[in-house]
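Q: Could you fold this chain for me?
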Amino acid sequence: MFSTLARYLRMLSRLPTTLENLMTTQAELVEQLNALTATVTKVRTETQTVLARVAELEAAVLAGQTVTPEVQQALDNLAVAVAAVDAEVPDAPAAPAV
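A: Sure. Below is the predicted structure, expressed as structure tokens.
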């Protein structure tokens, strides 16, 4: 009986350390998740800016503004790169019906 009690007391004495480690690990995880969220938000903003610029360039070309072959090739290359990224990133889920 005393050996069982001693074993339980040893286990209980380690419990605060285990809980402290668990809370520290979770706090670190929260920091990592927040950093990832910030990175995703930054990438989203940058992507929106690039897409807007591509649309502006395409509109300028379609409006008949004269561009050099190099500008046209750069625009075509960018459109291909944007399409490749778009294909790799899943679309946002549709908003639920109301």
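A (continued): Residues 32-89 form one domain.
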